Fold:
Amino acid sequence: MKSFVPTDLLDHLEALDADRADTYSFGIIGLDTQSIVRIFNKAEERLSGLAAAEVLGHAFFDEVAPCTASRLFRGRYLAGLARGSLDEHFFYTFTYRIRPVSVHIHMFYRPEQNPLVFIFLDRVIPLFEDLG
Amino acid sequence: MTPLPHKQEQEVVDNVVHWLAVLRGQSFRDPALALEQKILSQLLLQVLWHLCNNAFQGDGQAFLDRQQSILLQHLDASLAHGEGEIPPPIRRQIHACVTQLMAAVDTYHGG
Structure:
């Protein structure tokens, strides 16, 4: 699966902080090893409808996006932490409490460069515009 | 999972939601018993939402189709409606119950 994340960004992950994350047009969420949200970029604010101030410091899987508290999402995150590396792509359609939106997810973790686990999100325009 | 025809999926979920409403709607003299029915019903709906979501999302190789999205939204609407009838502290306990159970799977598999 081809990533939408520029190689340059992944190669220089140590430079990816909140300010730099804000310069990208796709969603970037940075989680610490306790799954607390540490980075929530402006694109993700716009696309999710959630303000960074509402989610920063909160548990991602339990509080911010409870629909992701399953093996498909949280399981990949935890497995990556246990392995000490993560570079996985998958598709996910969010429907819980929002208009359905399909997202290409790229989870990335390279602790020698950055202690955060990054979730990169590229929205696909929903095909079901009639679903509220 | 053997895929069910969409119409059949919708009918099954509709029947479950309807049956839960019937079970909740009994005339109990004890109001606490009525609340207990609402709590159990809400717990079951939450579990059903996760069951369907997991089955539809699969391993993340494809997006949900329109009917799957509709079905999950239908369940979500039933959940949202039920939440209004349950005191917030108990609502939070139901949510915690489901998420803790699912987190136990991650612990069992060693992350």
